[in-house]
TrEMBL record:
<feature type="binding site">
    <location>
        <position position="246"/>
    </location>
    <ligand>
        <name>Mg(2+)</name>
    </ligand>
</feature>
<keyword id="KW-0963">Cytoplasm</keyword>
<dbReference type="GO" id="GO:0005829">
    <property type="term" value="C:cytosol"/>
</dbReference>
<protein>
    <recommendedName>
        <fullName>3-isopropylmalate dehydrogenase</fullName>
        <ecNumber>1.1.1.85</ecNumber>
    </recommendedName>
</protein>
<comment type="pathway">
    <text>Amino-acid biosynthesis; L-leucine biosynthesis; L-leucine from 3-methyl-2-oxobutanoate: step 3/4.</text>
</comment>
<keyword id="KW-0460">Magnesium</keyword>
<feature type="domain" description="Isopropylmalate dehydrogenase-like">
    <location>
        <begin position="2"/>
        <end position="351"/>
    </location>
</feature>
<dbReference type="GO" id="GO:0000287">
    <property type="term" value="F:magnesium ion binding"/>
</dbReference>
<feature type="binding site">
    <location>
        <position position="250"/>
    </location>
    <ligand>
        <name>Mg(2+)</name>
    </ligand>
</feature>
<dbReference type="InterPro" id="IPR024084">
    <property type="entry name" value="IsoPropMal-DH-like_dom"/>
</dbReference>
<feature type="binding site">
    <location>
        <position position="222"/>
    </location>
    <ligand>
        <name>Mg(2+)</name>
    </ligand>
</feature>
<feature type="binding site">
    <location>
        <position position="100"/>
    </location>
    <ligand>
        <name>substrate</name>
    </ligand>
</feature>
<comment type="similarity">
    <text>Belongs to the isocitrate and isopropylmalate dehydrogenases family. LeuB type 1 subfamily.</text>
</comment>
<keyword id="KW-0520">NAD</keyword>
<keyword id="KW-0028">Amino-acid biosynthesis</keyword>
<dbReference type="GO" id="GO:0009098">
    <property type="term" value="P:L-leucine biosynthetic process"/>
</dbReference>
<comment type="function">
    <text>Catalyzes the oxidation of 3-carboxy-2-hydroxy-4-methylpentanoate (3-isopropylmalate) to 3-carboxy-4-methyl-2-oxopentanoate. The product decarboxylates to 4-methyl-2 oxopentanoate.</text>
</comment>
Length: 356
């Protein structure tokens, strides 16, 4: 089983080192090879996603990714900015299905900005389509407005589009995932206003006929944003497009209190995947040894489950994380009175210990 390790920038190398430590402790036949990505790759090779890094990712069974980006690269031309690396990997590997679980650990209920009773036991999965929608739709650009009240003025435009097969495959992913959970899918759209999302809704409804054992409901995105803070526990699996999923998954992340706890997986049709924490490179705390490595460690667990087909090893990691939290160990972002605050490496060591 070959894993490409792409630590990236900011806290990326610190948190990925802890996940690698945990993976090594499992004593599985894992072959790991590291390559630069993002700002680190720009410094080393003049491009955020060098050819050699892309090749390594393409040849691996899975990619473990830290995070990319730093404010010091904000003045670079867009194609050379670190964030282009993650967009390029998604596109080149065809990673169309993004899984973002939002799980509220019993010990961290207090960390949420919502009342504890609203989030205690929360366990939802957002499945976001990742390679289509307005983020990739062509044409896009700037021009002189051809018509309208401001004809001739500078305008910018993007294109929202989805094809039937794109919606079909993400809908199937969502229904299959719901079968492994509580059997309910909420498809989030804006079919009342957008043609693209009327097609989305029609196709999800059609695909649902193959999954009569799964409950399906449809919700407009504005209502979904509201329901996520009003009664989040009524959701099981949420499936939605790229832009709505981008926004709703960050909202769901904060229900659980800390973005430092949330893993993610992005899969292609062959089951090959890229696994990364949901947060960014956190330049404000980089190099201080205080970043929470648990989201990355839990991403490694998702990698074992989805791409490497090692569910027992994945469950061992998840149980170890639970145990460490139960012991009262916390990094600064999830600290609370009475707990022991530890640094990044100590947290990684504690998870290794708790593997048993
Ligand atoms: P961020 O997620 O990096 O940080 C937001 C806040 O959360 C910061 O205060 C940070 O200290 C804290 N935080 C994040 N991860 C943490 C962790 N593991 N432990 C403790 N605290 C943590 O978002 P940002 O500040 O908006 O962006 C910083 C950089 O990251 C930007 O360059 C952005 O483009 C990039 N970014 C990259 C990715 C990615 O690589 N997939 C995703 C989002 C943002």
């Amino acid at each position: 089983m070959k894993i490409a390790i792409l630590p990236g920038d900011g806290i990326g190398p610190e948190i990925v080192a802890e996940a690698v430590k945990v993976l090594r402790a499992l004593a599985l036949p894992l072959e790991m090879e590291t390559a630069p990505v993002g700002g680190a790759a720009y410094e080393a090779a003049g491009h955020p996603l060098p050819e050699a890094t892309l090749r390594l990712a393409q040849q691996a069974d899975a990619v473990l990714f830290g995070a990319v980006g730093d404010w010091k690269y904000d003045t670079l031309p867009r194609p050379l900015r670190p964030e282009q690396a993650i967009l390029g990997l998604r596109k080149q590997l065809g990673l169309f299905a993004n899984f973002r679980p939002a799980l509220c650990y019993e010990q961290l209920t207090h960390a949420s900005s919502l009342k504890p009773e609203l989030v205690a036991g929360l366990d939802i999965l957002i499945i976001r389509e990742l390679t289509g929608d307005i983020y990739f739709g062509q044409p896009r650009g700037r021009r002189a407005a051809p018509d309208g009240p401001f004809a001739g003025a500078e305008e910018a435009f993007d294109t929202m589009r989805y094809s039937r097969p794109e919606v079909e495959r993400i809908a199937r992913v969502a229904f299959e995932a719901a079968r492994q959970r509580r059997g309910k899918v909420t498809s989030v759209d804006k079919a009342n206003v957008l043609e693209t999302f009327q097609l989305w809704k029609d196709v999800v409804t059609e695909v649902h006929r193959d999954y009569p054992d799964v409950e399906l409901d449809h919700m407009y995105v504005d209502n979904a944003a509201m329901q996520l803070v009003k009664a989040p526990k009524k959701f099981d699996v949420i499936v939605t497009g790229n832009m709505f999923g981008d926004i709703l998954s960050d909202e769901a992340a904060m229900l659980t209190g800390s973005i430092g706890m949330l893993p993610s997986a992005s899969l292609n049709e062959r089951g090959q995947g890229l696994y990364e924490p949901s947060h960014g490179s956190a330049p404000d705390i980089a190099g201080k040894g205080v970043a929470n490595p648990l989201a990355t460690i839990l991403s490694a667990a998702m990698m074992l489950r989805y791409s490497l087909k090692q569910p027992e090893a994945a469950a061992r990691i998840e149980a170890a994380v639970q145990r460490v939290l139960a012991q009262g160990l916390r990094t600064a972002d999830i600290a609370s009175p009475g707990c022991t605050v530890v640094g990044t490496a100590q947290m990684g060591d504690a998870v290794v210990q708790a593997l048993g």
